Amino acid sequence: MTSKPARSIRVVTLYDDVMNVYADRGNEIALRVRAAEHGVNVEVTSVSLGDPLPAEADLVLIGGGQDREQRRIADELAARGPALRAWAEDDTAMLAVCGGFQLFGRWYRDASGTELPGAGVFDVTTLAPGPGAARCIGDILAAAQIEGVREVVGFENHGGRTYLGPGARPFARVEYGRGNNGEDGTEGAVFRNAIGTYLHGSLLPKNPALLDWLIAAALRHRYGAGTPEAHIDMLPAPYAERAHAASMAVARRRSPKFEPVVK
Ligand code: GLN
What we know:
27% of the residues lie in helices and 26% in strands. The chain is of the alpha/beta class. A hairpin with a 2-residue loop joins strand 13 and strand 14.
């Protein structure tokens, strides 16, 4: 047996003290555990209000937050937009959830009508239709549109409706639940190795294929595709697989099967 090379990925968490609804910080915990199983060290830099961004990152995580929390970070995050967009163009892996996803878009007009600027990593825009409109809430099951990842499962709870621009493609297609806007069947967005999604859960503890996808992308960013350091073995993830299967059953039982809205 050949010995595995020592390797590590540089992870940046953004505003995890502000943006952490539905325990989105669980994504970082799942990442640390799974990376260790693959023999990958994780070096985390936690960046919050007023902190500088490090020079480089292989993987960026940001969680969800309500409008109030989003207002606290929006201007600063938007100012970091060109740096984050440059990272995304350089194939840094990213996972932006819900309120974080909205602010990784171009702008978010919140429920009070205030327009918050976005970082522009994704060509998406989000509108909150106002206090009378129903929120998109419930278990969600969607077919991921990235290689090696099939169904993803999670929990969505958002007032904002997100629409994809020509420069964005959907992360997933909704099977049960509502997704970006409840109308077009899209869920989230993908730009190179950056993923935006409405799925909380926490998401990564019960979607092991997606977790491995992010780790593999981060390793490729650090070491280059095809290098021994960037290779990860197919490892079983028995607990996560069981959580995934149980969550799929829950979403099928409790959530409406997605029907596109015909206007
Ligand atoms: N404030 C946003 C909305 O309701 C995001 C909420 C969240 O992150 N759960 O649309």
